[in-house]
Model the fold of this input.
Amino acid sequence: MSTPAGTGWAQLRQQARSLETQTETLFHTYSQFSIPTTISPTPTDEEKKTEAQLEDILERREALTSRLSLLLSTSSDLTASALKQNNLSRHREILLDHRRELARLRAAIATARDRANLLSTVRSDISAYRSANPEAAEADYMLDERRRIDNSHSIADSVLSQAYAVNENFGVQRETLASINRRIVGAASQVPGINGLMARIGAKKRRDGIILGGFIALCFLVLFFWG
Done:
């Protein structure tokens, strides 16, 4: 008696998991109808079909849950019953979450559609008003242009302010480096013998340069007379 019951339980759970996966896929499709840029003024046939499919699957899952509960109530294996009870509770939780998600998506689509329709109505009213009042339309156009020009000026002023600030910062940095250099030179001049050492280093470089120049000149003369 236990084997057929176990087999029935496994088959029903497999169906429940399959329907849960289908529900997630339909949720993804259904959520696309709430995108403001593509939402239609009224529900499309595809939207109605997707919503009907979701409602149908949720009802089928409710029936499967009831059948699983009935099988569990007739099980004589207490250990297996505890595990099955956890599985059944999980299916019920997922079903409840999906019912809430359907309600949330339905409300989101309705809100997005109302907002899009309101915006469309406002735009139509503005267009009709401008068509009936060309002077007012021209004035509105000039005001819009003035706002765009003011915005451009504001951006230009902001860029110039940033450039002046950067230039001022560079000037401060140059002054700081010059001050540091003066302090280093002043500190070096106060160290005993540092000036003499620097003079000797300079004299040695000049002497080495003279010797190297003389050697190069000698090489040219040798090549000239022996070439």
Q: What stands out?
A: The mean pLDDT is 80. The radius of gyration is 43 Å. The CA atoms of residues 65 and 186 lie 91 Å apart. The chain is about 90% helix and 0% strand.
